[in-house]
Design brief:
This protein has helices spanning about 1-15, 25-35, 40-50, 50-55, 60-65, 95-100, 135-145, 145-150, 185-200, 205-220, 240-260, 270-285, 285-300, 320-330, 335-355, and strands at about 100-105, 110-120, 120-125, 125-130, 155, 170-175, 305-310, 315-320. It has two domains: about 20-80 and about 185-380, P1 Nuclease; about 90-180, no CATH class. The chain is an alpha+beta fold. It has a six-stranded antiparallel beta sheet with strand order 4-3-2-1-6-5. It is globular and about 70 Å long. A hairpin with a 4-residue loop joins β1 and β2. α9 (about 185-200) runs antiparallel to α12 (about 270-285). It binds zinc ion. Zinc ion binds near residues 61, 217 and 221. The site of zinc ion has 6 residues, from α5 and α10.
């Protein structure tokens, strides 16, 4: 029940905040388009033939956010909500993260008992019993973690068979989720990497391209500082709108003329979880600068020089003035460009790594296909991001 309510609330919240949630549509498409140039010769032809496809579909995950409740949390992680707020406090595996940040209750005929595990013991209510770590982990992964994938808040399952006799029988389990509200981005990137590798192994061109495009999206999100904090739109510090200011307005005004987008060749990612967590770590380290510099500029510049009116898609909309945006961009001292470059290189490296891990299939014959890109662009109600965000 609780989770359903959360999804309903978050759905409304996402719709309301829809202009502030990601690298602008423009930037996401550019990142994927430019990642194609990082491909080694064996893959370059394939991705060049399908460059329009991977670029166009870079924004698909954002479009899905409004339709699929699992989708939203994949785009961010509120680092402040987990452990001491550092990436090192995040467990290695997705299921461990789930285990750590969801509450589990055994529902008996008469009671609801909290289930926990530590130090070789499983605790159900006030009773405990010995259980090997390996057995607990296997049980949790198989029986409880699936609640995430199937979006369940109650599960039909039994306690691990080694300890079942020690406790009242559980009729079902209840899962109280604190993980989904605060985002799962680093773990989702690891999952996506695995899906992409398997698509290469199967030689499923359509799926390789769709997953490449979507992987590019999530990696792009991970390189944006404001995707790693509870204060994602400056709403906690009176800086509402800063999300789109940083990730849409700046790239739209300056990327084409100012950014150096030659990032070299993709590299092989040896340790995937560590690589994706590093994107989050380096993003989160920049949150303070993103916020403090903007606040400082807003204090120093007259208000009339901050907000301007522009025509977009036949409507007059309020946007940060060009000169004000440039001032912010300059004070950030290359940060937006650096994150943009990191995104391009990381996306290329993810594609390349999936292909290597799939055994370097020759991209000929069935794999030499060009898939037509159907542009699914839609317009939003909010004028500022009429072509997306
Ligand atoms: Zn996103």
């Amino acid at each position: 029940m609780k989770r359903r309510l959360f999804f309903l609330v978050s759905f409304v919240a996402f719709v309301c905040a829809s202009s502030y949630v990601v690298w602008g549509f423009y930037a996401h498409r550019e990142i994927n388009r430019l990642a194609v140039f990082t491909m080694p010769s064996e893959l370059a032809g394939f991705y060049k033939r399908n460059q329009i496809y991977v670029s166009t579909h870079a924004v698909d995950p954002d479009k899905r956010r409004y339709a699929a409740s699992l989708e939203g949390p994949r785009h961010y992680i509120d680092m402040e909500r987990f452990g001491d707020g550092t990436v090192d406090a995040l467990p290695l595996e997705f299921w461990e993260f789930h285990d750590k940040f969801t509450g589990l209750y055994c529902i008996t005929q008469t009671d609801s008992l909290e289930v926990s595990y530590d130090d070789g013991k499983i605790n159900v209510g006030s009773k405990s019993a010995e259980l090997k770590t390996y057995d607990y982990e296997k049980w949790y992964q198989k029986n409880i973690f699936k609640s995430y994938r199937y979006e369940l808040d109650t599960l039909q399952a039994a306690l691990p068979q080694q300890v079942r006799a020690e406790f009242d029988p559980c009729i079902r389990f209840s899962v109280f989720d604190t993980m989904m509200q605060h985002g799962v981005l680093p773990y989702h990137m690891v999952d996506m990497q695995r899906y992409l590798t398997s698509a290469f192994k199967k030689g499923d061109v359509k799926r390789i391209l769709q997953l490449s495009a979507e992987m590019g999206h999530y990696i792009g999100d991970a390189t944006v500082p404001l995707h790693t904090t509870t204060n994602y739109n400056g709403q906690e510090t009176g800086q509402r709108g800063i999300h789109a200011f940083w990730e849409s307005r700046i790239p739209e005004l300056f990327a084409e003329a100012d950014f150096d987008v030659l990032v070299g060749k993709a590299s092989y990612i040896v340790d995937k979880p560590a690589f994706f967590k590093d994107l989050i770590r380096t993003s989160h380290e920049r949150v303070d600068s993103v916020l403090l510099i903007e606040a400082d500029l807003r204090r120093k510049l007259p208000e009339a020089e901050q907000e301007c009116y522009e025509e977009r898609l036949g409507r007059i909309v309020r946007v940060p003035c060009t000169a004000f945006t440039r001032a912010y961009y300059n004070r950030l001292d290359g940060m937006v460009e650096d994150r943009f470059r990191l995104a391009i290189k990381s996306v290329g490296s993810s594609w390349y790594t999936a292909w290597v891990d799939a055994g370097r299939p020759a991209m000929e014959g069935d794999l030499a296909v060009t898939v037509e890109a159907k542009d699914t662009t839609f317009t939003r109600r909010d004028g500022l991001n009429g072509r997306g965000h």
